């Protein structure tokens, strides 16, 4: 299985951080390709992008000044298949990427990955501590396996993120 490309560049408004590529994403070579993953529909429904995209168009997020990356590059069926060492090493690599590219907002797609990254427990939503000047936002994973949060619940987090981004853009102009 192959790893996924990062879609990163300087000056991005928003970067989504996933845990690692799932097996379907690795097989297709595209982010959030799992059949039940809510990422692509929610990205559009929240207004973060102005047209509906699918996983095959993942590189197009850059057109909206949005980036994609993962904390761990090795594909696996689940986060439980990753070792704590892999997660911690991935967190260090991710920190270097974020310090290099310095997006306006970093959104962790899943609470567990931010907790490993930061070293402490968190709530969903905006976090009090930035990463090298980047605001941090944590949302429930868009994976269909995150049964505690249904699609409508996840949409509310995407909408809050969209409002936060609009506010940050306005403040910067």
Describe this protein's structure.
There is one protein chain. With 173 residues, this protein is an alpha/beta fold. The protein has a single domain (14-172), classed as Uracil-DNA glycosylase-like domain (Uracil-DNA Glycosylase, subunit E). Helix content is 35%, strand content 13%. A 5-stranded mixed beta sheet has the order 2-1-3-5-4, sandwiched between helices. The termini are far apart. 34% of the residues are buried.
Percent range of helical residues: 25-40%
DSSP strand count: 5
State the name of the first-level CATH class.
Alpha Beta
What's the mean pLDDT score? 94
The CATH topology, please?
A: Uracil-DNA Glycosylase, subunit E
- Cα Rg: 15 Å
Q: What is the domain total for the residues? A: 1
Q: Strand count, sense and closure of the main sheet?
A: 5 strands, mixed
Sheet-strand content, in percent, reads: 5-15%
The secondary-structure element order is EHHEHEHEEH
- Could you say which structural class the secondary elements and strand pairing correspond to? alpha/beta
Note the total helix count: 5
Termini separation:
43 Å
* Strands side by side in the biggest sheet: 2-1-3-5-4
What is the CATH superfamily label? Answer: Uracil-DNA glycosylase-like domain
Dominant shape: globular
Unreliable stretches: none
The CATH architecture designation is 3-Layer(aba) Sandwich
